[in-house]
Design brief:
325 residues, alpha/beta, four-stranded parallel sheet, globular
Length: 325
C-alpha cells in the first residue's frame, strides 16, 4: 500500500495508540525524516510489524514481505531504506544490486532466518538428491542462494504446486511447512529447527479463551503459527491477506494472532473494529526506531551489502517467485 504523507492525518492516526506528548515528540522527528528522504531521493519501505510512528509516519510503502519485495524490484529511487529486519533489506539489495540499500539497525535480525544457512541446505540436497527446494523469503541471501525458488506466506502453496515434483523440501519455517502440507498433495520435507520466536508463542488456549470471552469474534492467524492454532482460526494468511480478510469481515471483534504492532497499525485503519491481542512482540522489529531512521538517512548508514555471486544466485530464486506472483 502506498502512503501519502499528511501531517494532520498521521498525527490523528498516532493518537489512537500513543499519548499526546509522545505524538508531539514523534512528529518533530517524522517531519525531519520526511524532509531528508525527499532531499535524498530515498524511498522508505515499512513492514506491517513496524510501530505506528514508523509505519504511518515515515513509510512511503507498507505491506508484507511479498508486496515490499515487488516494490523493491520496481522502484527507481536511488536509495532504499528498509524498515524491517535484516533479511528483508538483503532481499531489496539482491533485487537492486546497483542501488544503495540501508537499514536503520543492522542488528535487527530474525530467529527464523538464523535457523538455517547454505551449508544446511546443501546437506539437505545431498540427502534428497533431485528434490526441489522452496525457501521462505524470511531467510538470508546466503540461504536463498542455495534454493530453487523462494516463497512468502501469501504464495507458498502456489509456489509448491508450481513445481514438477511429488516431493518438495520446504525451508526454514517448520510451522509454515505444516500449514502448506495441509493444502497440497505434495510431500513436504520440513526443517524442524526453523520457527518464528513470536508466532511459536501462540497456543490453542489463546483462541479458546477469546472465543469464550468475546461474541461476534473473528480469529485471524499468521501461518507461521502451528497448525494447532491456525486450524482454530477463521482465516490464516500473510499480513496483507489478514488485513484484507478483516476489511471484508462483518465481525466487530478481531483476535489478531501475529506480531503486536500490526494490531496497533490496524486500529486507526479500522476504527469500528475491536482488536484483541495477547501482544507478543518481535524485539528485532522493535530495534527500528524514528531516531535510528533519521540517523541512517543523515549518515547513509547502515548500508546493506551482499556478495556478488551470492546475490546473483539469490536473485534468481526471488525473481522466479515474483513471476509466479
Amino acid at each position: 500500500m502506498k502512503l501519502t504523507y499528511d501531517h494532520r492525518e498521521v498525527q490523528n492516526r498516532l493518537l489512537v495508540t500513543m499519548p499526546s506528548h509522545e505524538v508531539e515528540e514523534a512528529m518533530e522527528t517524522i517531519e525531519a525524516i520526511q524532509s531528508l528522504k525527499h532531499k535524498l531521493g530515498a524511498v522508505v519501505l515499512g513492514h506491517n510489524y513496524m510501530t505506528p510512528d514508523v509505519y504511518w509516519g515515515v513509510s512511503d510503502f507498507v505491506g508484507d514481505s511479498l508486496g515490499l519485495s515487488r516494490l523493491a524490484a520496481e522502484t527507481d529511487a536511488k536509495i532504499i531504506l528498509f524498515n524491517g529486519v535484516h533479511f528483508m533489506a538483503e532481499t531489496a539489495k539482491v533485487l537492486n544490486p546497483n542501488k544503495m540499500v540501508l537499514i536503520a539497525d543492522p542488528e535487527a535480525g530474525c530467529s527464523l532466518a538464523e535457523s538455517i544457512n547454505s551449508d544446511d541446505i546443501r546437506a539437505l540436497k545431498a540427502q534428497y538428491p533431485g528434490v526441489p527446494v522452496v525457501t521462505y523469503v524470511n531467510c538470508t541471501a546466503d540461504a536463498k542462494s542455495e534454493t530453487d525458488i523462494c516463497c512468502t506466506s501469501s504464495n507458498a502453496v502456489k509456489v509448491v504446486n508450481s513445481l514438477d515434483s511429488d516431493t518438495v523440501i520446504f525451508l526454514p519455517d517448520a510451522y509454515l511447512a505444516k500449514n502448506v502440507a495441509k493444502m497440497t498433495n505434495k510431500k513436504i520435507i520440513a526443517w524442524e529447527k526453523g520457527k518464528c520466536m513470536v508466532h511459536e508463542l501462540y497456543r490453542p488456549e489463546d483462541v479458546a479463551a477469546a472465543r469464550n470471552q468475546f461474541a461476534d469474534l473473528m480469529v485471524v492467524a499468521h501461518p507461521e503459527c502451528d497448525t494447532t492454532v491456525t486450524e482454530l482460526a477463521d482465516f490464516a494468511g500473510s499480513t496483507s491477506q489478514m488485513e484484507g480478510a478483516i476489511e471484508r469481515s462483518g465481525k466487530s471483534n478481531i483476535l489478531l494472532i501475529t506480531e503486536c504492532s500490526m494490531g496497533d497499525n490496524l486500529r486507526s485503519q479500522f476504527p469500528g473494529k475491536n482488536f484483541i491481542s495477547t501482544c507478543h512482540t518481535c524485539p528485532h522489529m522493535k530495534r527500528i526506531t524514528l531516531d535510528k531512521i533519521l540517523h541512517s538517512l543523515q549518515t547513509l548508514t547502515f548500508e546493506v551489502l551482499v556478495d556478488v555471486e551470492i546475490a546473483r544466485k539469490a536473485r534468481s530464486s526471488v525473481e522466479r517467485m515474483l513471476k509466479i506472483g
